[in-house]
Amino acid sequence: MKIRSDILRAYQYIHTWTGITAGLLLFIGFFAGAITMFAPHIDKWATPPTVHLPQVQSEQYDALIRAVFAKYPESQNDVKISFEQGHSPVTWYQQGNPRELRLDDQLWHASFNSTEELISHTRGINELSSLVDYLHRSAGLVGEVGHDHFGVYVLGVAAILYFLALVSGLILLLPSLTKSFFALRTNKGASRFWLDTHNLIGITSLPFHIVIAVTVIVFAFHDFFYAGLVKIYGDKPLFARQMPATVEFKVDNLPSLNEIMARAKVYAPDHQITEINLSRLNSKMPSASIQLVSDQHMLRGPKSDFLFMNPYTFEVTTSSITNGDQGIWGDIVTTMFGLHFGSYGGELGRWAYFIMGILGAVLFYTGNLLWIEKRRQQTLPVQSKSSRFMGKLTVGVAMGSILGVATSFALTKWIVLTSLNINQIYMWVYYSCFILTLLASFLFGMSQTAVVSQRLIAVLCLSLPATSLFALCLPSLSIWPANEFSSVVLELCAGVIGIIFWHMANKTKQRAYYGDQNSVWYVGDKNSTSSIKLSLSA
Amino acid sequence: MNSVFKQKKFKSQWLGKTITGLVLGLGLSFALVGLFAWIGADSLSQSLSNERLLWRTQFSMWLITPIWLLIFSFVYMFNSAKQAVLWLGSATLVVFIMLIVARGIS
Asked: Is the minimum CB–CB distance between A2 and chain B shorter than 8 Å?
């Protein structure tokens, strides 16, 4: 395909500059997003087994929630009934609420003991997966604007640049697409190898990237879009106002859970119910939000499908499962959500999204490295100021962010031994790692920082399975080893990632001390420092 | 370049084209989505169930972004910012007039 050369040049320019400005933000968004694919598994892994109370028999749930309502009336406002193994059957918030991330959330857990007496306790919530999710949505930028995080809007803008980068990248590749699609040329220098890698990942995962770019923009700016639609709709309402009932419902009249579940089953016969949230039970607008999963159907939420119903009248408000009057619209909209969350393909889909998320991060990292390689001065030992700045920034941000997450994971089981608030420690740990790595990159050089931080990440990742071994050998420590399949897999994956990072550190070191001298990575031979001194004084 | 086709000289004009894509692209997208909301399937002139309206409006909101961004991405193909403003501006104007007419008759 032929494209005019002046237009190609213009899109080359757009691709470079959108990529450079948005790349590092997107890097954090992607690698953290890849990790959030396993949020439920992380919660399981990070929560001490003593936090959750034992599950009850299916016929005991009704008696249990009535006992809870009687003893703790505040639970009538918002209570969660969970049918999942390893989770307390009934939980509610003592402090905070499920829709807001707070570091000091306290959750009540309730269950029956063997003689059907109510047992309950409060525990803090481990927010590790929520904090990774926060990092994913805001790139770690703090502050609030309107009713959302400042960082969410920044990532929204980054996603606009990202879309431009995708289209311009595609336009650039079109003329040579058929010739060099699968070419991975290792013999034509580092620049060509990185370019081929970058192109191959970019083209093969293009649909995924387009979906992510569009959904991120919608997630960030939907309020503005709705505000615009109000003008276009004129005197028509955007949404029908839900009419409150004329009488106030009372919790004493609440139908049994079996009845509520039976109605949900009628609506979605192929799904299993994992969770029911009952809220505002003593009001004119009570609600039951029912979480449903199915292996045979595409899920539209991050973890499950949902169905909203009035628990007294069984009237279904709406559902992400299109069995009501959603029309084609419900299908399309919920599919967009599902395509972002990657929750539609079971465990395999989760892994596919994890890998695509990591590859996305690699795409942005290699993009930045390409920018540097392209500007390489072949004749000068010291590279231009902008190249060195970009190199330091890339290493500092990327490695700092990964190091922060790795340290948070590595400390998780050890902090429980102390009385400290683990969620506050996570915040301190993440931001210190991030800022220190960024500073180190500028103060001590990008290559040295890259090598040291990659080694640290490797050790921290390997410490996850090591901690489990330690806990097995020393049970008196009261550290819990990985006791579930998913937790064992998580720790093994951490081990593999650790080994990969150790190799990366070796490669980086090789390049820094024995690689091409005219590269931003080069820091000179340890044994003959004369060349670097010369270049510094020049 | 190619004098046979009398191609005009291509001007980068980054700022002009970017603002045009950002503003007029969004305007044109809103107009198109609005037109589809008023005369497309399950339009606003019909009486829809609460649930149908809930998802129809969400769909319209979702539609804004891809249309906007496609216009935005291709705005740099115009030879000049002036040309971009003229084309996109008149397209937006035409669609908005159609939207107002559609709203008026329904």
From this structure: no
A105 and A142 co-located in one domain? no
In degrees and rounded to multiples of 5, residue A293 shows phi and psi of -130, 155
Residues recorded for chain A? 538
CA of A316, closest CA in chain B: separation in Å?
10
> Quick count: other Cβ atoms within 10 Å of Cβ B94?
12
Instruction: State residue A169 phi and psi, 5-degree precision.
Output: -60, -40
* Helix A39-46 / helix A128-138 crossing angle, nearest 10 deg: 140
The pLDDT of residue A239? 86
pLDDT at B5: 47
pLDDT (0 to 100) of residue A4: 84
Residue type, A36: T
Distance of alpha carbon A110 from alpha carbon A58, whole angstroms: 15
Mean pLDDT value across chain B: 89
Enclosing domain of residue A76: 52-125
Please state the domain count of chain A. 3
Which residues of chain A have a CB within 8 Å of the CB of B99?
A: 232
Same domain, A409 and A480: yes
Which pLDDT does position A297 carry in this prediction?
Answer: 74
CA A299 vs. chain centroid, Å, equals 17
Helix count and strand count (H, E) for chain A: 16, 10
Q: How far apart are CA A333 and CA A215, in angstroms?
A: 10
Query: Is A99 found in the same domain as A16?
Result: no
Q: How far apart are CA A313 and CA A246, in angstroms?
A: 13
Q: Which residue has the higher pLDDT, A476 or B24?
A: B24
DSSP secondary structure string for all residues of A254-281 = PPPHHHHHHHHHHH-TTPEEEEEEEE--
What pLDDT was estimated at residue A327?
Answer: 83
Residues in chain A closer than 8 A to B70 (CB atoms): 167
The answer on pLDDT for B12 being more than 60 is: yes
Helix or strand holding residue A111 (H, E): strand A106-112
Do A453 and A509 sit in the same domain of this protein? yes
DSSP run (H or E) holding A56: none
A218 chain-B contacts, CB cut-off 8 A: 61-62, 65
Interface pTM, i.e. ipTM: 0.91
pLDDT at A513: 84
DSSP 8-state symbol, A488: H
pLDDT at residue A245, as a whole number: 79
Give yes or no: residues A181 and A307 share one domain.
Answer: yes
pLDDT, tens only, A111-148:
999 898 999 999 888 889 999 999 999 998 887 766 67
CA distance B52 to B47: 10
Query: Which stretches in chain A have pLDDT values below 50?
Result: 526-538
Query: What is the per-residue pLDDT across A152-166, written as a single tens digit (0 to 9) for each?
Result: 999 999 999 999 999
Task: Report which DSSP code applies to B4.
Answer: G
Q: Based on the fold, state whether residues A413 and A303 are members of the same structural domain.
A: no
Q: How many residues does chain B have?
A: 106
The string of pLDDT tens digits covering residues A350-367 is: 899 999 999 999 888 888
Q: How far apart are CA A262 and CA A457, in angstroms?
A: 49
- Residue contact A232–B99, C-beta within 8 A: yes
